[in-house]
Design a protein that fits this description.
Number of helices of chain A: 9
CATH architecture of the largest domain in chain A: 3-Layer(aba) Sandwich
Number of strands of chain B: 4
Shape of chain B: globular
Shape of chain A: elongated
Radius of gyration of chain A: 22 Å
Number of domains of chain A: 2
CATH architecture of chain B: 3-Layer(aba) Sandwich
CATH topology of chain B: Rossmann fold
Largest sheet of chain A: 4 strands, parallel
CATH topology of the largest domain in chain A: Rossmann fold
Order of helices and strands of chain B: EHEHEHEHH
Oligomer: heterodimer
CATH class of chain B: Alpha Beta
Distance between the termini of chain A: 24 Å
Largest interface: A-B, 17 and 20 residues
Distance between the termini of chain B: 12 Å
Number of helices of chain B: 5
């Protein structure tokens, strides 16, 4: 999922300060799962913002809404009935959602309430870790199901480097060495020969180096 | 004559411990401040962060969550979860200028009638000293200005 974290209250308050009526929109997808911008978080932020305004003797009218998804125009369309009654929109979705709202309602001020972080998985309740960088050319089949692009600090294709010690990365004792994990898993699977194969330099044009990416499915488009 | 500030305290009390302890305090003829408005919950694990926020937003001057002693939760770990949520809400309260001191997590057993009365009194005194919830202060100031 795409993970996110709520922005500091100070920053959010500064964004909405000039307005009297705002639309606070959550998203039912990734940000709900990572507890950053779902219905519950919308309620919490709404309450916190209203209290912050009340302290200053002001009132902030907030319409709370949580869309099924903010990255699809079909769902954004649900805002049509509300948008004219507010001065600004505060979105708790990832950057994709915020941009889709801004694209649909061109004359409306739109602000993000979360910082979008990474594509990750839940390691345990309340903890998420990076797993994929969307490089556009997946190597997981060669590396035993562990991604060296997302999980090696240096994105090494032929690791480990000298900074690997006791299975940990030199950047932090909390970070596993991805190449240690890869080796351990290949060994456990009896696929050590895979490790011997030298991976050639990656063509990063499929990643961000090729500029903003787009997928077109002719059968669906 | 200026009326002395009397805080409104909302206490989310677990049915299996603090609520029974409040009952026990009554049986023991122990008095505690009438400022404390008890909301009985089946377990403090049922108390969501939003319940605490809404209580403060709607005018409570202080909120506390009273659950079972560590290891005694009827539902295994509801009190531990409640303590984590209280810590999380405290951070938010600091961020928006309400202040973390207006919220507390308290633990006790069902037999601790004395502790219930004592913590209710102590918390009420603390909130009385802190003064009204800052969300109300603006409207109080306005009222005082208007009435001189």
């Amino acid at each position: 999922m795409i993970t996110a974290e709520r922005k500091p209250m100070e920053e959010i308050i500064a964004c909405v300060k000039p307005y009297q009526r705002i639309l606070l929109i959550g998203c039912n997808e990734c940000v709900t799962v990572c507890a950053a911008g779902g219905r519950k978080e919308v309620g919490m932020l709404s309450s916190a913002l209203q209290m912050a305004f009340m302290q200053a003797g002001k009132t902030l009218e907030i319409k709370e809404l949580t869309l099924e998804r903010q990255c699809d125009p079909e769902y954004i369309e649900e805002l049509v009935g509300y948008i004219d009654h507010v001065d600004a929109v505060l979105s708790m979705a990832c950057g994709c959602g915020v941009q889709e709202i801004a694209r649909r309602f061109k004359d409306k001020h739109v602000y993000p309430a979360v910082n979008t972080k990474f594509m990750g998985a839940s390691e345990r309740q309340g903890m998420w870790a990076e797993r994929c960088q969307g490089c556009g050319d997946c190597v997981l089949g060669i590396t035993g199901g562990i991604c060296p692009i997302a999980r090696c600090s240096k994105r090494l294709l032929n690791g480990p480097c000298g900074g690997s010690g006791n299975g940990k990365c030199e950047i932090s004792p909390d970070v596993d060495c991805a190449w240690q994990l890869i080796w351990d898993r290949l060994k456990a699977l009896g696929m050590e020969d895979r490790y011997e194969e030298i991976m050639e330099a990656k063509d990063w044009r499929t990643s961000r180096d090729g500029g903003p990416r787009r997928i077109i499915r002719e059968d669906l488009a | 004559m200026k009326k002395e500030f009397e805080p409104v305290i909302v206490a989310f009390c677990c049915h299996y411990c603090a609520y029974t302890a409040a009952d026990m305090a009554g049986s023991m003829r122990l008095s505690y401040p009438p400022n404390v408005k008890i909301i009985r919950v089946p377990c403090t694990g049922k108390v969501d962060a939003i319940h605490i926020m809404r209580a403060l937003q709607k005018g409570a001057d202080g909120v506390y969550v009273a659950g079972c002693l560590e290891g005694d939760c009827h539902f295994k770990n509801g009190n531990i979860k409640a303590a984590r949520r209280v810590k999380y809400v405290k951070q938010i309260l600091d961020e928006i200028g309400i202040g973390r001191d207006r919220l507390e997590m308290i633990t006790m057993s069902a037999g601790m009638g004395g502790r219930f009365a004592q913590t209710a009194t102590e918390f009420t005194d603390k909130i009385r000293a802190l003064g009204p919830n800052p969300t109300k202060r603006a409207s109080i100031d306005e009222l005082q200005e208007a009435t001189g």
